[in-house]
């Protein structure tokens, strides 16, 4: 057939021809019509550029694929429909590899064998696209691994920052009050025995992780009291740098500096054996206590593994640290005004607690629970915890303050509080820590010691040397000593009430103020 050089019209449409369209059609150079539609021709359409006179061309409804050569596009889309062809005039974009294939843009090397190089190009293309796909996959995997590595390095840096020792001096300069807090701002820089225990800070971070796990469900959150603005959340707390303040009866206390510089004190309770409902009921009672001489409990967190209490951070630390912490050269002498002011503030705080009901008592009054603002105002802390935390531990230092009738730490009374407060007053006046104080191993049974000295009429021997410098207030000092002794009597019924105690301290503070004014008139 390909020898019929004069052939002008060839219509073999609607047959069963199969295989590739032969390039031999190029021999029929006078052909004006070539209709191959409705067959089973497959593969790509060969280059038919030798058919210069071709007016009519149709290959529709075959099994052809690939793109349509530029020279054939003029025959319109009808000529190509019903195939897997792409490109113009079908308006179907070809995959990048197919359209840009050079074989479809240039002439074949051998016109009689025109589709051979195209095939090779096709193979090359498919090999290339396979390589490209592999490249993309490997590239993506490497990219992903790189991102994971960067994230891991960042996380490790962050967590190591959290567990690293904290530069206290830098923190101290940043200390700020939580909005709404009644505590004083800015630290006066008193060295009260803070030790940055990296290990304990790690424990905080570890416990925090557990807490975060629990909160992961979204069920557990910090619960804030009263109208306290939610200025931070558990996540902020866990991100904060933590510093151990000390271990107490109820757990370990930490100072946590939140992003932005606000500091809070966080107490991790141990030995909480009561149910969540009971805990919430009790802690909400504690959170409702509102007095200028109490350390406000701002929030709590309860989960199976972790119970946290969040308090305002008191920048000057505790009375215990102030009295016994720094005996060296840099010590701030504690004059009568400071000591009597602390006694009055603490008495007011405890009296407020007692005014909440006959069964409401503190249960753990001692100098490490009297915290101080920058102006040395007293704030009573740790109230209401005695009946929340289990009885498992009673450090020896508590025993020095405990009334003789108290055998179960949870069964405390207001009269037992008065006894403890009496011991605290003796501590303020003598500068001596009661029995087995951890801060001062030379601790003594203060009430017995004071009574014995007073009995021998060596009253002035009792007082802290720092106080003896203020001779003009000796009378008030003796009155306060007498009040302390009255509070610390053996029989509960003989002890005064907290409001009587508060009134007596108030009176003697006023009289010392009057004496002061008389001695130094304005
Ligand atoms: N809100 C706070 N601000 C500043 N320091 C605090 C705060 N709360 C506690 N501290 C300090 O942290 C340390 C540990 O306190 P914590 O109350 O856990 O134990 P404690 O007072 O020694 O004993 P206890 O648990 O029997 O009361 C103490 O030195 C205490 O003064």
Give a quick precis of the structure:
The chain is of the alpha/beta class.
What does it look like?
It is found in: Membrane. Residues 116-126 have a biased composition (Basic and acidic residues). By secondary structure, this protein is of the alpha/beta class. It folds into 3 domains: 1-92 and 158-172, Ribonuclease Inhibitor (Leucine-rich repeat, LRR (right-handed beta-alpha superhelix)); 195-312, Phosphorylase Kinase, domain 1 (2-Layer Sandwich), CATH 3.30.200.20; 319-519, Transferase(Phosphotransferase) domain 1 (Transferase(Phosphotransferase), domain 1), CATH 1.10.510. The chain has 15 helices and 15 strands. It has helices at 96-99, 115-163, 168-174, 198-216, 234-239, 276-288, 319-324, 336-354, 396-399, 414-430, 446-455, 459-462, 465-468, 474-487, 498-519, and strands at 9-11, 18-20, 33-35, 40-43, 56-58, 63-67, 84-86, 223-224, 241-247, 251-257, 263-269, 297-302, 307-312, 370-372, 378-380. A 6-stranded antiparallel β-sheet has the order 8-12-13-11-10-9, sandwiched between helices. A 4-stranded parallel β-sheet has the order 2-4-6-7, with no helix packed on it. Strand 9 and strand 10 (251-257) form a beta hairpin. Bound molecules: adenosine-5'-triphosphate. Residues 245-246, 248-250, 253, 265, 267, 295, 311-314, 317-318, 364, 368-369, 371, 381-382, 398 line the site of adenosine-5'-triphosphate.
